Every structure is written in C-alpha cells, then in structure tokens.
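Retro notes (design track)

What went well: tokenization of the new backbones is finally stable.
What didn't: we kept losing track of which sequence belonged to which structure.
Fix going forward: every design gets posted as structure first, then sequence, in one message. First example under the new rule, 559 residues:
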C-alpha cells in the first residue's frame, strides 16, 4: 500500500523455528512464534521468558516472511476486531439473561420417568379403606371404614379427597388414567409402572361400582369433612351419604359410564371377569341415562353442594376420541359429517393452544396456559390436561403420517391457519416443563421433584405428624395454621399452582395455591406418559415409533 504520507518501505520479518536433533523439548517455546508481529510493533513489552532460546518440539524448520506496509491500519484493524468481539459477546449475554415474556419455555430436559413414578405415588397417599401393608406411602393407614354403606355393604376400597369422597373427580380420574394406559400401555410397561397404575385404577373402579345401586351416590353432605383438620385415620364423626337420582345428575352418571368402560378395557386381557363386571354396570347405568332427562343435578338432588367444588365444564376432551375413531377406524357413510365436525372442533382446540392470541387464548407472562379463570379452576390442572391432549393428538396425526392440521376460518381472518405436529409437541413440553420448574418462581409444583418444591401442601395427612398419637379436629388446626414445613412429604402431589401473574404462595392455609387433587394429578400423569420416550423398536420397522396402541381402543367397533 502507498500514499503520499505513508512510509512505503517494506519491513521484512524473519523467524526460523527449529528443533534440536534430540527431537524433544523440556518447555514450550511458542511465545515468540505467535507474537512476532506484535513484538515488532511494540504492542507488548519484550518477553522476559528465559525459555525462548530452548529447542522446539517441532520436527521441521519453517521460514516466515511477513510484510506489513502500514502500522496504523494494522493497529486500527486489531482495535476494531477486538471491539466487535466484545459487542457480540455482550449481545449474547444480554439475550441470555433477559426474561422471556409471553413465550413458551425452550425445551428443557426433565427426568420424565422419575416425575411419572412420583406422580403415581401421590395416588397411594389418597387411598381410603383397608390400607395395603405393602403401600409405598408410610404415613397412611386404615381410614373411613364406616363410610359408604350402600345396600348394607361396607366400602373397603375407596378414594379420599378433602376427607370427602367426591364421585365426579373420582370418575374423571379413573377415566383419564385408564385412557392413558389404553393409549400408552407399552410406555408404562417399559418403565415398570403398568402394574402400579392398574392398581390405582382398580382401587377407584371398585369405589365406583359401589356407588351404583339403583342411584348414583355422591358423598358430599357432611360439613365436618370441610371444617375438621384431621387425619383420615382419626375420623370418628358420622359421615352420611348423599345421593342423586340419575335423572337429575346425567353428567355425573355419564362420567361414571366413561370411567367404568375405560377401566374395563384396561383389565380386559388379564382380568376378564372383573372387566366384564365393569362393562355390565356401565351398560345398565347408560340405559338409565337414556331413559332419563338430560338435566344436571338440581334442587331435588341432595348432592347439589358438590357442584360448588367439582363441576362439569364440557366435552371437548372426549371429542379427541371421536377424532381417533375417524383416523384409525373410518366408519364411512353415514357417519362422515359427524366425524368431520368433531375433527374440526378438535383442530380449533389445538389451534387455541398453539396459535394464541388469535384464538382468544391467553398465557401467563411465564408461559402457562390460562383457561376458565371465572370458575376458579387450577391453572396447572387445565394446563396438564391440555398438554396431554396436544401430545396425544400429535401422535394421532403422526400415526397416519400427517404433518399437522388446519383451523376453521374465523371472522377476523380471511384464510385458514394451520398447525404442525411439532408445534403441538412443543406446546405440550412447555406446559409440563413449567410445572416441573421452568417458571418464574424457579420451583417445581410437584412435591419431591427437583431441588425446590412446595413444603406446606394443603393436605391433612401430610401436615399432621404420623407419630402414633390420635389428634382431634381441635388439635389439627394448629397444624393447618402453622408456618412449619409439613412433617410428611407428599411425594408426587401437584399443587393448585400459581395465579395469572405466575405468583405462588407456599402457605398451607391458602388451598387455591397449595391444594393437590386426584383429578389434577391424573392430568399430569397422562401428560408425562404421553411425552415420555417410546420403547425402542426394530430398526427395520417402517411405522413411526410413538409408543401408541393404534387399534386397541376401538378394536370391537364393527359396521
């Protein structure tokens, strides 16, 4: 390079790097090798190392002839390069540490096998009746042995919730757990939990069988169950039964039919007699529903107070099953219109999950799905169920080699929007990851999972010491209002979780944050098994490896 004021004289720089005949060096001698040009321009002071004269370990001598024509331009180049590198590093750090708003969380690797095993363990802590001696939860025992006397028969296998046995969430729980086993039986078997989940389903199914003796039972009418903070093992007050006529509680009866029917498929192969009993009871109950009105329970139903706690909200969950029927068991004429309509509705539901806010769906700032806020429902329960449905529907589509689906057109758009199976899977993972710790509170909302989780769970058995002493209702309230940690860890319990701003208070006397339920955990179990890696298959298999039982659910349907 040359210009009027620039010294154009070339300055050759030579350096020969060689090794001794011995072919080895005691210490490195590369400092001058890499800094010869910088030394020439006095960027750094001359090296004070005494090792520069030692032999090199390189086997050949190399001659370098480096020519730099303008020292100022060269220095400027170095300064600018250093500044650019600094700016790039600063930008990367800034992006990394800035909080993400209204976005799903990036994929986070969680131990889904451990989470699933723990979530199932929660149900063992909820059992009422003669407590199994080999049960995994050691702070529980026999309870409620005088409950549920239907037709002179005592209940020996029941499910306890808020010390009240609610039939609706029990039926829903058994339906959802059975559904997950029917779909992902291979996955449960692969991780060694198929017998465990079937034991939970069987326990609940026995309870539902006892409810149907001419009427559908609903144990709800004892106020002491709500006002008394006492372990189930210590209950000694009267616990009467309230009931609803089927004509006044068709929604409850319908959920019971679904639970009994789904459970019958779970036990069809190994326990045919028990499975047939479930089918027969479901058929009788269904016939009574068809003969009755379609009203929900009203003032003529003594169990109407249960609706304050657990209410039915819709049937979109079940429409996933109709979509499955259309995909894998095409019934043809005259069912096309009905099947097509159900698929359209499910596609719209999926779009509401992954294409918000275009479909009037909102999320918390941390990425948790927000639904049915007006009902006071747990955001985590609804998010877990949505996670299950989205991953299951993604598996359905992949099984028939479809890449996604289309949403119905709306009044605000002139074109159809679409979603992919990957979008559904990403959404499903984001909700489970949020529950397990990827949230603004940096807390797992499932007890026992991760390094930080709720310690004041709103749960009688977990909050009162298991020390061989009996505690009355009055005794129990000191633990309800205590700020101490629960003496018993309720492993696997998913609490109600945060509010719409991602805030969470770990306080036992605030059940809208810290209360777990069997219906919530059922949704979490279903989501976890859906997201779990499928079993390994043969490398020669041409079918997608989804861990999904394609034909098992509707194998008996014939035209």
């Amino acid at each position: 390079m040359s210009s009027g004021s620039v010294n154009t004289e070339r300055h050759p720089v030579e350096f020969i790097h060689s090794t001794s005949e011995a072919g080895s060096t005691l210490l490195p001698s590369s400092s001058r090798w890499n800094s010869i040009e910088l030394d020439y321009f006095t960027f750094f002071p001359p090296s004070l190392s005494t090792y520069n004269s030692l032999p090199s370990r390189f086997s050949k001598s190399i001659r370098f002839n480096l020519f730099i024509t303008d020292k100022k331009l060269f220095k400027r180049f170095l300064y600018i390069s250093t500044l650019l590198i600094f700016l790039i590093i600063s930008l990367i750090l800034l992006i990394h540490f800035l909080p993400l708003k209204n976005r799903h969380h990036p994929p986070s690797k969680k131990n889904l096998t451990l989470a699933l095993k723990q979530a199932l363990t929660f149900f063992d802590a909820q059992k009422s009746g003669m407590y199994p001696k080999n049960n995994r939860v050691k702070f529980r025992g026999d309870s409620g042995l005088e409950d549920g006397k239907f037709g002179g028969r005592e209940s020996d296998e029941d499910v306890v919730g808020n010390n009240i046995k609610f039939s609706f969430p029990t039926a829903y729980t058994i339906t959802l757990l059975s559904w997950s086993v029917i779909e992902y039986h291979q996955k449960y078997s692969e991780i060694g939990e198929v017998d465990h989940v079937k034991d939970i389903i069987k326990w609940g199914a026995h309870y539902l069988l006892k409810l149907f003796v001419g009427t559908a039972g609903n144990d709800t009418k004892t106020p002491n169950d709500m006002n008394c903070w006492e372990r189930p093992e210590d209950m000694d007050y009267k616990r009467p039964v309230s009931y609803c006529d089927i004509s006044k509680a068709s929604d409850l009866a319908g959920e019971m039919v679904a639970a009994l029917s789904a459970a019958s498929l779970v036990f069809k192969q190994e326990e045919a007699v028990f499975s047939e009993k479930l089918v027969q009871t479901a058929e009788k109950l269904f016939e009574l529903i068809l003969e009755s009105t379609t009203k929900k329970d009203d003032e003529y139903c003594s169990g109407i107070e249960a609706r304050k706690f657990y209410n039915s909200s819709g049937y979109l969950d079940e429409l996933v099953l109709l979509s499955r029927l259309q995909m894998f068991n095409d019934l043809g004429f005259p069912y096309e219109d009905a099947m097509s309509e159900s698929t359209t509705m499910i596609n719209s539901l999926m779009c509401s999950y992954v294409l918000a806010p275009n479909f009037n769906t909102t999320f918390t700032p941390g990425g948790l799905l927000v639904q049915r806020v007006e009902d006071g429902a747990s955001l985590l329960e609804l998010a877990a169920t949505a996670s299950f449905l989205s991953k299951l529907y993604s598996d359905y589509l992949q099984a028939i080699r479809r890449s996604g689906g289309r949403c119905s057109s709306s009044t605000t758009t002139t074109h159809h929007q679409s979603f992919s199976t990957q979008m559904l899977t990403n959404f499903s993972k984001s909700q489970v990851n949020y529950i397990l710790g990827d949230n603004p509170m940096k807390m797992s909302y499932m007890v026992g999972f991760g390094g930080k989780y709720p310690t004041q769970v709103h749960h009688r058995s977990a909050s009162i010491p298991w020390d061989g002493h009996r505690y009355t209702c009055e005794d129990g309230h000191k633990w309800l209002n205590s700020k101490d940690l629960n003496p018993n860890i309720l492993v696997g319990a998913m609490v109600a979780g945060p509010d719409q701003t991602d805030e969470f208070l770990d306080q036992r006397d605030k059940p809208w944050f810290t209360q777990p339920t069997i219906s919530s955990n059922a949704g979490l179990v279903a989501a976890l098994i859906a997201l779990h890696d499928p079993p390994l298959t043969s490398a020669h298999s041409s079918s997608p490896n989804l861990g999904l039982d394609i034909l098992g659910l509707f194998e008996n349907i014939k035209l």
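Added context from the reviewer: The first helix runs from residue 31 to 40.
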